[in-house]
Amino acid sequence: SPKVKTFAGGRMRSIWLRIGVTCVVTAILFFTTKAVYDSNRKSVAGRVLIYEVTIDLIKQRPFFGYGWQSFGKIYNLHQSNYIRTHDISMDKTLLASDSYYAFNEFLQAQTELGFIGLVLLLLLVGCILKTLVRDKLDVFEVAAAGSLISIIFCAFSSYPFHTTSILINAV
Fold first, then answer.
1. What is the mean pLDDT of each run of 10 residues along the chain (171 residues)?
2. Rounded to an integer, what distance in angstroms lies between the CA atom of residue 71 and that of residue 53?
3. Where are the strands (E) in 4-144, listed by range?
4. How many CB atoms sit inside 10 A of residue 43's CB?
5. Cβ 73 vs Cβ 123: under 8 Å
6. Distance between CA atoms of 55 and 33, rounded to whole angstroms?
7. Closest Cα partner for 54 from 88, 101, 95?
């Protein structure tokens, strides 16, 4: 019947549109990430070292962590021990410096608060995102949702939860 063909055809166009948009967004993200990496390889390598040392810290106290706001105190001591006990290249060693943030809020949360703290943080983020996913949002709610999503996205490679101005805007 004509109605079935129209419905199926409309649905297929919608699926192809979603696939096309997903491919374009993926390509943009890939090339943007590559451009940022190529422009600042030392910074990326330095963060990778921070992530490696942080993961090593997490392995030692995975469930309860080291305590609230303890990252800056414990990280630098552990970094020197990590470099001394692991086969680290001289180039990578030169990137080591005093770090007070993990440059990943979720890794830092697990380091300081353990698995339990990380789960609580993820539940909080999930609850915030769930309240923003409704059928009808006004312009301000869409803007707020976009802001919060960008802050959460930024949390994977920076420390927005430790920046007062960002926290004020998030509230």
1. 50 82 92 86 84 95 94 92 86 80 94 95 86 75 83 88 81 70
2. 11
3. none
4. 13
5. no
6. 23
7. 101
- Which residues does 102 contact at the CB level (< 8 Å), separation at least 6? 50, 51, 54, 71, 75, 108, 111, 159
Q: At 45, is the secondary structure helix, strand, or coil?
A: helix
Two tokens at 45?
Answer: 């390598």
DSSP H or E segment with residue 149: helix 139-154
CB 121 within 8 A of CB 109: yes
For 100, list phi and psi in degrees, rounded to 5. -110, -5
What pTM, to 2 d.p., does this model score? 0.73
Comparing C-alpha atoms, which of 110, 106, 99 is closest to residue 58?
Answer: 110
Q: What is the dihedral of CA 37, 40, 43, 47, to 10 degrees?
A: 0
- Nearest residue to 95 via CA among 77, 81, 83: 83
Residue 65 burial by CB count (10 A; 0-12/13-18/19+): exposed, middle or buried? buried
> What type of residue sits at position 11?
R
Q: How many CA atoms lie within 13 A of 55 on its CB side?
A: 6
